[in-house]
Structure formats: C-alpha cells, structure tokens
Amino acid sequence: MKHLVIAEPAVRDLEAIVDYIALDNPDAAENVYRGLVRAAERLPEFSAAGRPGRHTETRELSVSGLPYLIVYEVSAEAVTILAVFHTSRDLARAFLDRMQGS
Question: Which residues on adjacent β-strands are paired with residue 86?
Fold first, then answer.
C-alpha cells in the first residue's frame, strides 16, 4: 500500500482552518480536523477516490459532510496531500497561486 505524505503547505492549511474555526467554536474545529484527517488517511488505499484535478497530475477529493477539498498527487509509492481548501474559494486561482509561491 502507498504511504501518506502531507506537504508542509497542506499542514499549514489544516492548521489555519482549525485555528480559524476554533476562534468561535473549538468543538466544531475538532470535528472538522477529525473529518479532514479521516479523509486523508483513506487516500493511500483509495487513491483514485478523488476526481481528476484542475492541474496536471493532481486529484481532488471533496470531503464528505465538510466544505473542504483535499488536493493531492499520486505516485507509485505515495499519496501526497498538496493543499486543503474551503470550497468557497476560487480553487483554480488558489492552487495556481500556491504553485507559483504567492
């Protein structure tokens, strides 16, 4: 089975999401965190679960019950999570900015 890698920008995304939600509702932040982690942990076994991504070589997983999208890439050895975005964002622009280092 492939192993899971979470790129540093995706770690920062997850931290920012949880921190923002926790300002108003720490319990909701914990639930969102658990939901995102649970979805991520299934990716090595079910790497084709997401749809083809907006950018070459990526896939996008809509997280069930949450308004978040996990952007990832699959290699022979690993599934690498590149980003976690709220679905209200302009995802194409957000990911392009990320890839260009903006």
Answer: 68
Q: What is the pTM of this model?
A: 0.89
Q: What is the pLDDT of residue 14?
A: 97
- Domains for the chain: give ranges and CATH numbers: 3-99 (3.30.2310.20)
Cβ distance 32 to 25 under 8 Å?
no
Amino acid at position 23, single letter? L
Identity at 24, one-letter amino acid code: D
CA 57 to chain centre: 15
Residue 57 backbone class (left: φ over 0; alpha: ψ -120 to 50; beta: rest):
left
Which tens digit of pLDDT belongs to each residue from 52-95? 998 889 999 999 999 999 999 999 999 999 999 999 877 767 76
CA distance 29 to 38: 14
